[in-house]
Design a protein that fits this description.
Serine Threonine Protein Phosphatase 5, Tetratricopeptide repeat; 501 residues; 22 helices; two-stranded antiparallel sheet; mainly alpha; elongated
Length: 501
């Protein structure tokens, strides 16, 4: 719009000047001794305009020629900036795609070529992130040191380097080092929401439950954290505080919680345990009932079913109300069965537990059924469910009963020597070389030279009756074959040797 305006203005002035020169004719006299120049007014005006244009062009040309080195430096800087931007773009694309090695190479080119400290810091931080994802922590630490060095005194670059380093330290489970980097940022301003969130993670890893609760509340007020994640941090921190501090800090901690935070499972369990230990089972029951009304959590139902006998009637009536809206909840049926066992309602407890077992085979249900049948004197059923409980738990295998062990495999044992097959001219084997089987634990070596071994060409002597002291040996050594063992493989005779008669 401005261009059109100035164009129209110049044209209007030209037209007006032309009209003025046409109506007012005259001469222009220039006297410069010894010259006398006389021109018409129109020609003089045109010459002045032409001289102005020529002078303007000459001055611009001289300015362009004198600014050549500066323009060359500017062109080189623009080209280097474009190259750095292209490398940063391709490097970040590779980093986001998961090609960390290629991304690290692109960022290394920027670090070696770029003259801009800002781009060097960005490239070093991106290279550190790529090395961190690859598990190269030494290269990551070198890149972080290079980023801090190039950041200098620039506050934003220093904060960026500290934030990125702290985030990677937290991923590596090094919360103390992350805390040292994040604490100055938090002290400077609480508007660093990402730094505050990282500080929350650091305190959570250090189990500083008070700080976790306070920082979660701060992020909730600023809307800088997801509600589900915030409830998770609040649940773990509050439950830990209740377990650690007990009844003295119960009122202070419980008073800080909102209604939706008091029904979180771990918070309700910790609060109920404190009230139960302090002798207030009714208050513990109310806390658990409110939490179970919000969500049927198996942990809450298990805790609710464990009570004194005088609390069974009240809790059983409440659980039956929940059963009307959740008739197929296995944990609720198991809790009802446990309450019935505590109140010695054997038949009703058995029905609840069997219904629960049909929905889900659980260790606790089988154990409760085993206890129930044991109290009723049904030992076989009790043993059956206890065995099933151990099988579901995976602790012990369920072995079949009355199964004999297989016979030992003796094929690998060393064979004995048949002295009948040894010729007369060959000496007997030395006592040190006699092989012993693994079962010959009580072996007593006898001198084989004193044995009366018959020759093969002599008739065998008739068998002598056994002495009275040897009858026990016949009874001890059973000649029956061993089940499952091939005796042809365990014979003490060499293959193909002569047979004794």
């Amino acid at each position: 719009m401005r261009t059109w305006f100035w164009t129209f203005l110049v044209l209007a002035l030209a037209v007006g000047l032309a009209l003025a020169l046409h109506d007012h004719g005259g001469n222009v006299l220039i006297i410069a001794q010894p010259w006398r120049i006389e021109l018409s007014l129109t020609l003089a005006v045109l010459l002045v305009l032409a001289a102005f244009c020529i002078v303007y062009v000459v001055l611009r040309l001289l300015g362009w020629l004198t600014s050549g080195p500066e323009r060359l430096r500017t062109w080189r800087g623009a080209r280097a900036q474009k190259r750095d931007h292209d490398l940063l773009e391709t490097g970040w694309v590779s980093l986001l795609e998961g090609r960390y090695s290629q991304a690290e190479k692109d960022f290394a080119k920027i670090l070696s070529q770029s003259r801009s400290s800002g781009r060097k810091v960005l490239a070093a931080l991106a290279a550190a992130r790529a090395a961190h994802r690859m598990g190269e922590f030494s290269r990551r630490d070198d890149a972080l040191a290079l980023a801090r060095e190039n950041a200098g005194s620039e506050p934003r670059l220093k904060e960026a380097a500290a934030t990125v380093a702290a985030e990677m330290y937290l991923d590596q489970r090094r919360p103390k080092e992350a805390l040292e980097l994040l604490q100055p940022l938090q002290d400077a301003s609480s508007r660093y929401f990402h730094a505050t969130y990282l500080l929350l993670r650091a305190h959570a890893q250090l189990h500083n439950h008070d700080r976790v609760f306070a920082l979660t509340r701060l992020l909730q007020r600023r809307g800088a954290i997801n509600k589900t994640e915030a409830l998770g941090y609040i649940e773990s921190s509050v439950a830990a505080r209740l377990h650690q501090e007990g009844m003295p800090a119960y009122k202070a901690v419980w008073g800080e919680l909102k209604s939706d935070e008091r029904v979180l499972p771990e918070v309700a369990l910790a609060a109920a345990a404190i009230q139960e230990a302090d002798g207030h089972p009714e208050e513990a029951s109310r806390i658990l009932e409110a939490a179970i009304g919000a969500r049927l959590d198996p942990r809450l139902l298990s805790a609710y079913s464990q009570c004194a006998p005088d609390q069974v009637a009240h809790r059983l009536s409440k659980a039956e109300v929940w059963l009307k809206s959740h008739p197929n909840d296995s944990a609720l049926l198991a809790a009802l069965g446990n309450l019935c066992l505590t109140g010695q309602l054997w038949g009703q407890g058995e029905r609840y537990l069997l219904r629960s077992m049909k929905i889900r085979s659980d260790v606790r249900i089988h154990a409760l059924l085993g206890n129930l049948y044991d109290r009723l004197g049904r030992s076989a059923d009790a043993m059956k469910h206890w065995r099933l409980a151990s099988g579901v738990a995976g602790v012990l295998p369920v072995l079949p009963a009355n199964r004999a062990l297989p016979a030992a495999d003796m094929r690998g044992d060393p064979t004995l020597i048949d002295f009948a097959a040894v010729p007369d001219h060959e000496p007997a084997q030395a006592s040190d070389d006699i092989p012993q089987a693994a079962s010959a634990a009580g072996y007593v070596h006898l001198d084989v030279d004193t044995w009366d071994t018959p020759r093969l060409d002599e008739p065998a002597a008739p068998p002598q009756p056994a002495a009275a002291g040897e009858s026990g040996l016949d009874e001890y050594f059973d000649s029956a074959p061993i089940p499952g063992v091939d005796l042809s493989q365990t014979s003490d005779r060499p293959p193909g040797g002569p047979q004794r008669r």
